[in-house]
Amino acid sequence: MAIDQEMLMPEKSFINEGFEKQYIISPLKFLMLNALSCGFYSVWWNYKVWRFLIQRKHSNANAAIRVVFEIVYFIPRCYQILKLAKDKGYSKTYFPILLFLLYFAFALTGMMPPPFFLLSPLSGVFLLQPLMAFNFILSQSPELEVVADQRLSITEIIIIVIGSIVWLLIIIGVLSMMFLQGETGFTP
Length: 188
Hints:
This protein is mainly α and 188 residues long. The chain has one domain (22-184). It has nine helices and two strands; from the N terminus they run H-H-E-H-H-H-H-H-H-E-H. The protein has helices at residues 2-8, 11-15, 27-36, 40-57, 63-68, 70-87, 96-108, 128-139, 154-184, and strands at 22-24, 146-148. It has a two-stranded parallel sheet with strand order 1-2.
């Protein structure tokens, strides 16, 4: 009798066990959130992807640790996303090592003097291919509860507020530097 009840259970609720609702984010929204948040949104997205990949493997790894050590885990994550997407019929490809080099090169421009530091938020462009492959994985997984992310979540709003404060501080810093240079005649 217990076996009969198990067989009558809907497959989705059985397979969906352990997964939370997944959100498909459009590339344009991703780029806008990443730029507005001064690059912080890509960190949040990386965390969500790692959490999904870890839940999928039923592993006890920590997604936050993988995000903190992103320099080590970037390439393996991109390969995992690409492999999962290819297994589900994804036809496009990308090169994780090249994405890694470009992503971190642009991210490091944030430590450069003006105006070069303005290139830093553009590092999110190099996450677009893994983002689209990940969106494909989610859209081709009937066992998951997947929603098209159209509104801003509370977390996204908080990230935008923090990023906006950072942008404001950057603008104030650049303007004050320009003002002080003009006043003293000193140019580094």
